[in-house]
Design brief:
The structure is a single chain. The protein has 144 residues and is α/β, with parallel strands linked by helices. The chain starts with a strand and ends in a 6-residue tail after the last helix. Helix 3 crosses helix 4. The protein is built from four helices and five strands; from the N terminus they run βββαβαβαα.
Protein backbone atom coordinates (compact mmCIF):
# COMPACT_ATOMS: atom_id res chain seq x y z
CA UNK A 1 0.00 0.00 0.00
CA UNK A 2 1.36 3.40 -0.96
CA UNK A 3 1.03 6.29 1.44
CA UNK A 4 1.58 9.96 0.61
CA UNK A 5 2.73 12.53 3.15
CA UNK A 6 2.00 16.20 2.50
CA UNK A 7 3.74 19.22 4.01
CA UNK A 8 1.19 21.88 3.07
CA UNK A 9 2.45 25.44 3.02
CA UNK A 10 1.47 28.90 1.85
CA UNK A 11 3.74 29.01 -1.20
CA UNK A 12 5.29 25.53 -1.34
CA UNK A 13 3.84 22.10 -0.62
CA UNK A 14 6.02 19.05 -0.19
CA UNK A 15 4.82 15.58 -1.13
CA UNK A 16 6.48 12.25 -0.41
CA UNK A 17 5.17 8.86 -1.53
CA UNK A 18 6.11 5.56 0.06
CA UNK A 19 7.37 2.56 -1.84
CA UNK A 20 4.92 -0.26 -2.64
CA UNK A 21 5.61 -2.01 0.66
CA UNK A 22 4.60 1.07 2.66
CA UNK A 23 7.88 0.79 4.55
CA UNK A 24 10.10 3.48 3.00
CA UNK A 25 9.75 6.96 1.59
CA UNK A 26 10.31 6.87 -2.16
CA UNK A 27 9.34 9.68 -4.51
CA UNK A 28 9.40 13.31 -3.30
CA UNK A 29 8.35 16.56 -4.94
CA UNK A 30 7.81 20.21 -4.07
CA UNK A 31 4.77 21.91 -5.58
CA UNK A 32 5.55 25.61 -6.01
CA UNK A 33 2.26 27.52 -5.98
CA UNK A 34 0.09 29.54 -3.62
CA UNK A 35 -3.10 28.37 -5.36
CA UNK A 36 -4.82 25.57 -3.46
CA UNK A 37 -6.55 24.30 -6.61
CA UNK A 38 -3.17 23.83 -8.33
CA UNK A 39 -1.83 22.01 -5.26
CA UNK A 40 -4.89 19.73 -5.22
CA UNK A 41 -4.60 19.08 -8.94
CA UNK A 42 -0.96 18.00 -8.69
CA UNK A 43 -1.62 15.90 -5.60
CA UNK A 44 -4.43 14.19 -7.52
CA UNK A 45 -2.03 13.42 -10.35
CA UNK A 46 0.47 11.90 -7.90
CA UNK A 47 -2.28 9.89 -6.14
CA UNK A 48 -3.34 8.43 -9.48
CA UNK A 49 0.19 7.87 -10.79
CA UNK A 50 1.39 6.04 -7.67
CA UNK A 51 -1.88 4.39 -6.58
CA UNK A 52 -1.84 6.13 -3.21
CA UNK A 53 -4.35 4.69 -0.72
CA UNK A 54 -3.74 6.83 2.36
CA UNK A 55 -2.70 10.45 3.02
CA UNK A 56 -0.72 11.84 5.93
CA UNK A 57 -0.89 15.60 6.35
CA UNK A 58 1.60 17.53 8.43
CA UNK A 59 -0.14 19.02 11.47
CA UNK A 60 1.80 22.10 12.55
CA UNK A 61 1.30 22.25 16.29
CA UNK A 62 3.00 24.96 18.32
CA UNK A 63 6.17 23.85 20.12
CA UNK A 64 4.20 23.66 23.41
CA UNK A 65 1.68 21.30 21.76
CA UNK A 66 -1.13 23.85 21.46
CA UNK A 67 -2.99 24.46 18.21
CA UNK A 68 -2.82 27.76 16.35
CA UNK A 69 -3.95 29.19 13.01
CA UNK A 70 -1.61 26.95 10.98
CA UNK A 71 -3.07 23.84 12.63
CA UNK A 72 -6.57 25.07 11.79
CA UNK A 73 -5.47 25.53 8.18
CA UNK A 74 -4.18 21.93 8.16
CA UNK A 75 -7.49 20.66 9.58
CA UNK A 76 -9.37 22.45 6.80
CA UNK A 77 -6.99 21.02 4.19
CA UNK A 78 -7.48 17.51 5.62
CA UNK A 79 -11.25 17.85 5.14
CA UNK A 80 -10.70 19.13 1.60
CA UNK A 81 -8.38 16.21 0.77
CA UNK A 82 -10.86 13.65 2.15
CA UNK A 83 -13.74 15.16 0.18
CA UNK A 84 -11.77 15.54 -3.04
CA UNK A 85 -9.98 12.18 -3.15
CA UNK A 86 -12.08 9.93 -0.90
CA UNK A 87 -8.97 8.72 0.91
CA UNK A 88 -8.35 8.57 4.65
CA UNK A 89 -6.24 11.50 5.90
CA UNK A 90 -4.15 11.20 9.06
CA UNK A 91 -2.98 14.43 10.71
CA UNK A 92 0.63 13.96 11.82
CA UNK A 93 2.49 16.18 14.30
CA UNK A 94 5.14 17.87 12.19
CA UNK A 95 6.87 19.94 14.86
CA UNK A 96 10.52 20.47 13.92
CA UNK A 97 10.33 18.71 10.52
CA UNK A 98 11.08 21.88 8.55
CA UNK A 99 13.94 22.75 10.92
CA UNK A 100 15.28 19.20 10.61
CA UNK A 101 14.91 19.35 6.81
CA UNK A 102 16.92 22.59 6.67
CA UNK A 103 19.61 21.00 8.86
CA UNK A 104 19.78 17.90 6.66
CA UNK A 105 20.15 19.96 3.49
CA UNK A 106 22.67 22.33 5.08
CA UNK A 107 24.66 19.32 6.29
CA UNK A 108 24.69 18.05 2.72
CA UNK A 109 26.24 21.36 1.65
CA UNK A 110 23.19 22.80 -0.05
CA UNK A 111 23.15 26.60 -0.12
CA UNK A 112 20.20 28.45 1.47
CA UNK A 113 18.76 29.60 -1.87
CA UNK A 114 18.66 26.06 -3.26
CA UNK A 115 17.40 24.64 0.06
CA UNK A 116 14.31 26.84 -0.23
CA UNK A 117 13.27 24.90 -3.36
CA UNK A 118 13.61 21.43 -1.83
CA UNK A 119 13.08 21.80 1.93
CA UNK A 120 9.33 21.10 1.76
CA UNK A 121 9.88 17.81 -0.07
CA UNK A 122 12.43 16.77 2.57
CA UNK A 123 10.01 17.82 5.33
CA UNK A 124 7.28 15.69 3.69
CA UNK A 125 9.71 12.75 3.57
CA UNK A 126 10.42 13.22 7.29
CA UNK A 127 6.69 13.28 8.04
CA UNK A 128 6.27 10.10 5.99
CA UNK A 129 9.22 8.35 7.66
CA UNK A 130 7.85 9.20 11.11
CA UNK A 131 4.40 7.93 10.20
CA UNK A 132 5.72 4.73 8.58
CA UNK A 133 7.87 4.03 11.63
CA UNK A 134 4.83 4.52 13.88
CA UNK A 135 2.73 2.18 11.70
CA UNK A 136 5.38 -0.55 11.90
CA UNK A 137 5.80 -0.24 15.66
CA UNK A 138 2.02 -0.11 16.25
CA UNK A 139 1.40 -3.11 14.00
CA UNK A 140 -0.58 -1.11 11.43
CA UNK A 141 1.00 -2.48 8.31
CA UNK A 142 4.28 -3.56 6.84
CA UNK A 143 6.44 -6.19 8.47
CA UNK A 144 7.28 -6.09 12.16
Amino acid sequence: MRIMAIDYGDAHTGAAVSDLTGLLAGYTETIHTRRQEEVLSRLGELIGEYGVEELVLGYPKNMDGTLGPRAEKAEAMARTLEERFGLPVKLWDERRTTIDAHNILAGAGQRAKKRKKTVDAVAAALILEGYLTWRRSAGHGGSN
